[in-house]
Amino acid sequence: MTAATTATPTHASTAIGPVPSGHYSPAGVLRSEWTKLRSVRSTVWSLLALAVGTIGLGALFTAVAANRWSTFSRVEQLAFDPTSRSLRGIFLAQLAIGVLGILVVTNEYSTGMIRSTLAAVPNRPLVLAAKAAVFGVVALMVSEVVTFVAFFVGQALLTSPAPHATLGQAGVLRAVVGSGLYLAVLGLFALGIGSLIRHTAGAISTFVGTLLILPLLVQAFPTSVQNSLDKYLPLSIAQSMITVQGAVQKASHDFAPWTGLVVLAIYAAVLLVAAGILFVRRDA
Question: What percentage of the chain exceeds 90 in pLDDT?
């Protein structure tokens, strides 16, 4: 009879081989998440859709306004907001950034790579924080570049007699910068949804429902209730952000642009905190 001995494993096993346990740093986790984000096709296609949607639609709306300016009524001309017109493409871009935010998380669950990630980095809150940080920085940088390009292209297409805006005018720089911030925060909001649901189709359905279906449901309520609820919706926050104060008569019940952005940031933070708590408690 021989004695059986049990060796204590010093490495975590994964499908791609042994991975050292416990030897990681926040910087290393950030680099890992950056590698994942830039190496998948969904990132390229989603960011391309964001750029085409924001710039292309903005150019289309401003070109149409310039061509039809002489047909506008006097009231329409006085209410015309050239900044808002050139930034309207963000209403399509928000779908692209939302889908990308969801896929940042759900892609790993659909392929099973999340197990390898957690084997290499058992600190789950750090993993989620790194995903949010890397995605947030990329989303912010791309969104700001795209909104500035959309603004300049749009204003170039607004030929006389249609008025055009400059960054030096009151509220214009806020609208352009704020639009990029809005898209980035909305992407983090979507990432939180993806982290909670962990299934691509379900998360995208929830995001689209929140963004597009919920405003329709709010319309079923009496006007007083609509006014109380509507300002909390992402679409209303976006509209407030791209509108230059004084150019268009805003509804008195809307949040101010920066207030609305803070509200959206709170939504994203709550979702990410809830996702972090469940991430620690649930199996991969």
Answer: 72
